[in-house]
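Saturday, quiet lab. Running sequence design on the structure tokens for the scaffold JK sent over.
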């Protein structure tokens, strides 16, 4: 066992100062070509990738970018089993919203801290959060993030004034209300506008597209015409297959979406699913006819591209948000195809180190 081995379940989550070197099989570039060597990090940036024989069982890859979360409901894990999507999450009186109203602010923040810490330890380096509760909701998330190194892109909800504190606007769905004003406010603030669409049925997809969004979420019920419009406008889509399974709304047409645009993976509501990108990748790889390389792209640089982040790829010039897995763990040892093993088999217990810039 190499000296650097960290006990299973206790990964090292670090930010770097000065120079740090990560060794092993490096999944290089946007195609994740496995090369033996070292990644040199200086002051939070990847400055070199040196191909060389090295004595390490590590697998070095980009930390994950979770493209869609709602972490505010961390206090209500597994609540409402078997309820419909509407009974669970429809504003204002879905179960989730009643539970959130009943909880006090400190309790909500404490719940988020635990989920965010789990995300870090399971290899996530950045996430795109849809945040309920207006300005106060955004501020609570920022409090929860204090002391952690995750990069959060926060899409706030409610009045347009939420844009003063959020990184963008995250609309529930075009059937819920008219978002024309919020869309215009986001544009005026030079911030992205994201929206759920096509989760339960197709009726809110065209109205969502009419808002010229920067990011669409779900698109379970997208048809050929919607896909063409998405391709023409170059709008990335975040898909959440496990969430869609739990709420029984169908599954997103991932293969078709991939032919038309950038498709990123998200874990959606924490109360419905653990925010583990390993689990989302495994489900996606086994449910769909897509390659392991495509799934890993969906879990890393697709989300980074959707939010304009400089991470999700191991190459010089990128932010050093990186993940090191133990390729000689009981789970991964003997794997013949490294990318396939990372996507379909690896889990949190294989995480040795998470470097968050
Ligand atoms: Zn959502």
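Result came back. Writing it out in full:
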């Amino acid at each position: 066992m190499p000296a650097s081995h960290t006990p299973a379940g206790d990964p090292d989550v670090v930010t770097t100062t000065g120079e740090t070197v990560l060794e092993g099989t490096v999944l290089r570039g946007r195609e994740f070509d496995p090369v033996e060597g070292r990644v040199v990090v200086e002051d939070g940036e990847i400055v070199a990738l040196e191909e060389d024989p090295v004595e390490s069982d590590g697998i070095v890859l980009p930390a994950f970018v979770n493209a869609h979360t709602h972490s505010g409901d961390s206090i209500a894990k597994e609540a409402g089993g078997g309820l419909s999507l509407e009974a669970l999450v429809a504003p204002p009186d879905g179960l989730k919203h009643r539970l959130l109203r009943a909880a006090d602010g400190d309790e909500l923040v404490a719940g988020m801290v635990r989920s965010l810490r789990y995300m870090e330890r399971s290899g996530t380096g950045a996430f795109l959060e849809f945040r309920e509760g207006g300005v106060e909701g955004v501020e609570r998330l920022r409090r929860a993030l204090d002391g952690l190194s995750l990069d959060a892109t926060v899409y706030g909800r409610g009045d347009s004034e939420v844009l003063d504190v959020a990184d963008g606007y995250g609309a529930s769905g075009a059937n819920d209300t008219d978002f024309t004003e919020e869309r215009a406010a986001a544009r005026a603030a030079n911030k992205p506008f994201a929206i759920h669409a096509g989760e339960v049925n197709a009726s809110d997809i065209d109205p969502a597209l009419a808002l010229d969004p920067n990011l669409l979420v779900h698109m379970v019920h997208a048809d050929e015409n919607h896909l063409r419009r998405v391709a023409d406008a170059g709008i990335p889509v975040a898909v959440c297959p496990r969430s869609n399974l739990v709420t029984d709304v169908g599954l997103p047409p991932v293969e078709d979406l991939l032919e038309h645009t950038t498709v990123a993976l998200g874990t959606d509501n924490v109360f419905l699913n653990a925010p583990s990108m390993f689990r989302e990748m495994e489900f996606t790889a086994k449910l769909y006819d897509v390659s392991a390389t495509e799934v890993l792209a969906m879990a890393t640089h697709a989300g980074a591209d959707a939010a304009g982040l400089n991470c999700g790829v191991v190459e010089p010039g990128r932010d050093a948000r990186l993940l090191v897995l133990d390729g000689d763990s009981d789970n991964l040892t003997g794997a013949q195809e490294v990318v396939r093993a990372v996507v379909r088999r690896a889990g949190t217990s294989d995480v040795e180190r998470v470097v968050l810039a």
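Notes for JK: The chain has 13 helices and 16 strands. The pocket of zinc ion is lined by residues 68, 70, 130, 196, 217, 268 (CB under 6 Å). Ask whether to fix the surface positions before the next round.
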